[in-house]
Amino acid sequence: RVYLDRIEQQRHLNAYLEVFDARALEQARALDGRIRAGERPGKLAGVVVGIKDVICYKGHEVTAASKILEGFTSLFSATAVERLLAEGAIIIGRLNCDEFAMGSTNENSAYGKVLNALDNTRVPGGSSGGSAVAVQAGLCQVSLGSDTGGSVRQPADFCGIVGLKPTYGRISRHGLIAYASSFDQIGIFGSNIADVALVLQVISGPDAYDSTASQREVPDYQMDLRHNKNRKFAYLKDALHHNGLDPEMREGYESFFEQLKSEGHTVEGVNFDYLDYVVAAYYVLTTAEASSNLSRYDGVKYGYRTPEKDLDLADFYKKSRSEGFGKEVKRRILLGTFVLSAGYYDAYFTKAQQVRRLCVEKMQQILADYDAILLPTVPATAFRIGEKTDDPIAMYLADIYTVLANLTGVPAISVPLFRHSNGMPYGLQIITREFDEENLLQIANNVL
Ligand code: GLN
Questions:
Q1: Is the dihedral of CA 346, 352, 356, 358 positive or negative?
Q2: For domain 2-203, which CATH number applies: 3.90.1300.10, 3.40.190.10, 3.50.50.60, 3.90.110.10?
Q3: Could you report the per-residue pLDDT of 61-96, keeping only the tens digit for each?
Q4: Which listed residue (77, 104, 109, 127) is catalytic?
Q5: Whose CA is closest to atom 4 on ligand 1?
Q6: pLDDT in tens, 397-418
Q7: What are the catalytic residues (predicted)?
Q8: Is the Cβ atom of 116 under 6 angstroms away from ligand 1?
């Protein structure tokens, strides 16, 4: 009830697309009964969770913040949701986001933008803006988002909270609406590392419904998070000296690295070499995958269909898709279709795959010598509403520090460490080897 009241009071933030009040209260009452009867109803008993509206919950509407899925009800729950429920979590509602998780500001939602609770003239980041604000404003305890190129870490950074993107394949994607399948990963927002670690523990692991979910055993993320030792950190010189990075933030990172050294850690600068190519490679590959994934929304199988009558099949598809998809989604379908087309395939798609391979090798090489890589999460603090809407390229370029982890599959976390003189928070991004979430969480907990 406390959370439901707060959600009501903070309606203007537009974080929730729908609140499952009746169902949530029913879950809470049932749990209360079980606890009174002496049962132990699970690791997350009574924990209030919000889910990004790209994650399916049986019997509930799921729209990907798109008009094209309006009115569509999910027939099954995502594996991550099943696992939360099995441990007693209460799913309180579905959270606003950019349409089909495409965006960096949450201004691309068909259901209106989300406001940053710290400064209502600024965006919360995206695409999981609603999930970030819900935790930031205390409208749930933890939330789920999805991170294809930074959509959990970037809004966490803008909102001053913790955001984790696990290793690709750590969490099943079954029931996660696909944007770019070889990049997508469910991520977790929380206000501290222990909460995020606990949720990760519950929702990770193999899944018969997702062959890309890793078979690796899930380690104990509840290990002593306070455990500290001298670490060997690398920072990427080309990232820190990139001219897009806010100079005050650069100084913040530099003095933080000095502090780490004075505490006995090693912090060394290394070159990544391919940083200028990562955004381009990311947008070529993800739009290519998206153009294929989104071909299923044809007006027949799901949600919206054009009301116009007497169309032949091709025109019916065209009309339904033209009316159902928003501008940014259309832009990406066009771009993705173009880079996959005969004659351009090798110049764009194949080339981008080669860049991806080089990035993977470089990442492995650096992480063979270092425990973790330290990076900014975003080159600037939260944008003003409307600031980047007319310039999609400028918006894409701001993804420079986050797309790296998705191109290479490694786990990454953003922790809120700093405050800018403009009053906004910004974070430190930490990256470790694949499936090394244990060290990632320990390091994050110790720096926070
Ligand atoms: N901003 C990136 C994009 O628009 C990230 C999206 C995401 O991670 N879902 O593609």
A1: positive
A2: 3.90.1300.10
A3: 999 999 999 999 999 999 999 999 999 999 999 999
A4: 127
A5: 103
A6: 999 999 999 999 999 999 999 9
A7: 52, 127, 151
A8: no
